[in-house]
Design a protein that fits this description.
Elements lengths: L13 E3 L2 E3 L3 E3 L11 H13 L4 E8 L12 E2 L6 H12 L4 E7 L15 E2 L3 E2 L7 E4 L2 H21 L3 E6 L5 H4 L16 H19 L4 E9 L9 H12 L5 E6 L2 H4 L12 H4 L10 E3 L6 H9 L5 E4 L1 H5 L3 H6 L14 H7 L33 E5 L3 H13 L2 E5 L8 H5 L10 H11 L4 E4 L6 H7 L3 E4 L3 E3 L20 E2 L1 H5 L8 E5 L4 H12 L4 E5 L14 H10 L3 E3 L2 E7 L2 E6 L5 E5 L2 E5 L2 E3 L2 H8 L1 H6 L4 E4 L9 H14 L12 H8 L4
Parallel strand pairs: 3-4, 3-14, 4-5, 4-6, 6-10, 7-9, 10-11, 11-12, 12-13, 13-14, 15-16, 15-18, 16-17, 18-29, 20-27, 21-22, 21-27, 22-23
Antiparallel strand pairs: 1-2, 8-9, 19-28, 24-25, 25-26
The structure holds adenosine-5'-diphosphate and iron/sulfur cluster (SF4).
């Protein structure tokens, strides 16, 4: 296939100071839960992106000194020469595919409480650290400022030594001293680093000048700056100081990487922001600098990218999440295969896993984080080991991915789905308010499967155990999903709730099937992910009076790790949904629903005609159990392998179901080890021949 000439512009080279990016695709810095803790995984993951066509491949944030110690988080460090080799490995992986390696250097200021280094945190002014730790950052004196510049410069020089092509001076997301000095609410200084805008910007200017002087002849120097904080006059505003700062420093860096702060505004979930949501804030930047500009906006569509370049909004297409969901996005455009792009769904599971301090996971890309430890490549999969057939029952995310990946391996695959519609829970959930982008999980896989002559799909085909055995496949995967339970068992309740059997009780499955219960309705959330909040929103949209009761202190509490809890809570309240936090379901007596405070056990009674229980799920494993129970019949049917995958095995995230489907296909014809991956520390121990 050849590329559509309309997209040629995306493959023009871009000069970034003394270095040249081979095209306009720029993977902006992003955390990944690997960093220095899982450095081999991190290097391999970055290498795959370079292979997939990203001309610039960046690190996550790299701290420059022990006073910027965010231990726990698995980001990078460039504290001393000791940090050079692991980062050099990433550079090698990126250079292998002719891309440029970029390092984002930062000092976290009051975002670092220095629990490992035990240093006193530093900041423009005296202020408590972020995160409720009983620690205060102290105001930097002149010697501290000199030290900070020296540490930054030393880190720049070490970056060059490691092999990086570009150094990024960071003043975005409120996560870096250089940016924190700019903000009057943080900077109460009266010296030449405080007061006027020029003074507040001085440090950012100085670290860039230092970097240019030291390495500017061979390395690109990038300014990464948040032009707006979306907090009105209290913070940076793009029409005011945001613009003035770019005007002041316009020609100093070799490229401007611009966005909005904080991280939760930069990486908004698709539930709350569309592709290109940052354009109103950053569109002015190109008019005040001649240097190339890169920005992000969860861009996945090449036509949109072309128009951004042609309309002078940006010179390079920045991406974190789209490059995670599809590391080969540029290559697919280049090769004229845009239908093959695996578009990010904006769910922020990737962000969540970084917050969990574990290697990043992606709903759309099951190989993310597995590049090194399992050797999984996002675009290559080993051929089948034998001419065998595979029957997959259930076309939710697990079944669809299993069919796609097994089909790609060359197996003869049959996928049977009880419903007319493919997609399982993804099809249902994508119809909930704000979640339509999640349908991409289904769309990508259905399209891929349609291209494969060796994969046959049978919708509207609910298979019985008899039919499964009659089919005579060599391998059977049961991907029949799960259902929400009605009996109250969840996180807090591990016992039946008195009176529940007499009430009108529904589950999210009923709501997604279109049942509108009688109002007023209580949505009882003892699950704490998105479903409670979104079911409440759906029912409010149906015109009901809704009270959302949750056993946690806030609505949809787990979503704080994927950056959307505050938005969900504000949205729910804005819709007129009553919220009762820290309460559990105690007893139901007709329409009187008794709720007990989780701390005091004090009971509050609410009148409700119905209750929607969002508590936990049970696997739909009847088909598996029936097949598994009769080994003799299985033997008669030729002893096929039999596995459960996805929610039918263990109800979890959509990302987990996709991963399990992929894993099933990868493991066909293999004998997986008990620990089916390499571990970084064990490898190291091997290397040093420890006893
Ligand atoms: P997962 O997240 O694990 O992929 P889902 O709940 O999304 O699970 O999907 C399970 C799918 O399996 C649903 O679309 C359901 O209709 C289908 N299914 C359940 N039982 C059968 C069966 N006996 N035959 C065919 N399809 C089935
Ligand atoms: Fe996009 Fe979700 Fe993957 Fe993150 S986890 S890259 S938001 S699809």
């Amino acid at each position: 296939m050849t590329r559509d000439p309309r997209y040629d512009i995306l493959f023009e080279p871009v000069k970034i100071g003394p270095v040249t990016a081979r095209n306009r695709f720029y993977q902006v810095p992003h955390c990944n839960g690997m960093g220095r803790t899982f450095p081999s995984s991190m290097a391999a993951m970055r290498g795959v992106k370079a292979e997939g066509g990203w001309a610039v491949v960046s690190t996550e944030q790299i701290d420059i000194h022990p006073t910027s110690d965010i231990t726990g988080a698995t980001e990078g460090r460039m504290w001393s020469d000791q940090d050079v080799p692991y980062l050099a490995r990433m550079c090698d992986a990126v250079h292998e595919h002719d891309s440029l390696a970029l390092i984002e250097l930062t000092h976290n200021g009051k975002f670092a409480s220095n629990s490992y280094s035990r240093e006193v945190p530093i900041f423009p002014s005296h202020m408590p650290v972020v995160g409720n730790n009983p620690v205060q950052a102290r105001a930097m004196d002149k010697a501290d400022i000199r030290d900070y510049r020296r540490w930054h410069l030393e880190a720049v020089k070490r970056s060059k030594q490691a092999g990086f092509d570009i150094v990024c001076c960071y003043a975005a997301h409120n996560l870096s001293l250089a940016g924190q000095f700019m903000l009057p609410r943080y900077n109460q200084r009266t010296d030449e680093y405080g007061g006027s805008l020029e003074n507040r910007v001085r440090l950012f200017r100085e670290i860039m000048e230092d970097a240019k002087e030291a390495v500017g002849d061979t390395m690109g120097v990038v300014a990464r700056f948040a032009v707006d904080e979306l907090r009105g006059a209290e913070g940076m505003e793009w029409e005011k100081e945001g613009r003035e700062i770019i005007e002041m420093l316009a020609e100093l860096p070799d490229l401007w990487d611009v966005n909005v702060a904080e991280w939760h505004n930069d990486s908004v979930t698709s539930r709350f922001a569309e592709e290109g949501f940052q354009e109103p804030f950053i569109a002015f930047v190109k008019s005040v600098t001649t240097k190339p500009v890169v920005a992000v906006g969860r861009y996945t569509t090449p036509d949109r990218m072309v128009s951004l370049i042609k309309n002078g909004v940006m010179d390079m297409i920045g991406a974190a999440r789209p490059s995670i969901a599809d590391p080969f996005l540029p290559k697919k455009i280049e090769e004229g295969r845009i239908e093959d792009i695996r578009e990010c769904i904006g769910c922020n599971i990737c962000v969540g896993w970084d917050a969990l301090m574990a290697p990043m996971r992606c709903t759309q890309n099951p190989t993310k984080g597995e590049e090194w430890r399992k050797g999984w490549h996002p675009e290559r999969i080993p051929e089948k080991t034998a001419d065998e057939s595979v029957l997959i029952i259930g076309a939710g995310p697990a079944g669809l991915e299993a069919a796609r990946a097994a089909g790609e391996r060359g197996y003869n695959v049959t996928l049977a789905e009880a419903d007319e519609e493919l997609g399982g829970r993804v099809a249902r959930e994508a119809r909930l308010p704000g979640l339509s982008a999640w349908g991409r999980v289904r769309d990508y896989r259905v399209y891929q499967i349609q291209q494969m002559a060796n994969v046959e799909v049978f919708p509207a085909s609910r298979l019985t155990a008899e039919q499964v055995l009659e089919f005579g496949a060599d391998h059977i995967a049961i991907a029949t999903g799960s259902h929400w339970r009605k009996d109250g068992y969840g996180r807090i309740h591990q016992f039946p709730i008195p009176g529940l059997s007499d009430a009108q009780v529904l589950t999210p499955d009923d709501v997604m099937a279109g049942v509108v219960p009688a109002g007023p309705v209580i949505v009882y959330d003892d699950d704490h992910y998105y479903m409670g909040g979104i079911v409440a929103e759906k029912l409010r949209g149906d015109g009901l009076d809704v009270t959302l009761v949750t056993s946690d202190p806030v609505v949809s509490s787990w979503t704080s790790i994927n950056l959307e809890q505050h938005r969900i809570q504000a949205h729910v309240l804005g819709l007129g949904i009553e919220v009762l936090a820290n309460h559990k379901l105690h007893r139901v007596a007709g329409q009187a629903v008794e709720l007990a405070c989780v701390f005091s056990e004090r009971v509050t009674t609410l009148e409700a005609a119905s209750i929607v229980m969002v508590t936990s799920r049970l696997p739909d494993a009847a088909l598996f159990d029936e097949l598994d129970a009769d080994q003799a019949r299985l033997k008669e049917a030729g002893s096929p392998s039999l596995r459960r995958i996805g929610d039918c095995y263990g109800p979890a995230t959509i990302a987990a179901a996709v991963y399990e489907g992929h894993r099933f296909a990868r493991e066909l014809g293999t004998e997986p080890e008990d620990i089916p991956y390499k571990r970084e520390l064990t490898e190291l121990a091997d290397e040093f021949a420890l006893p």
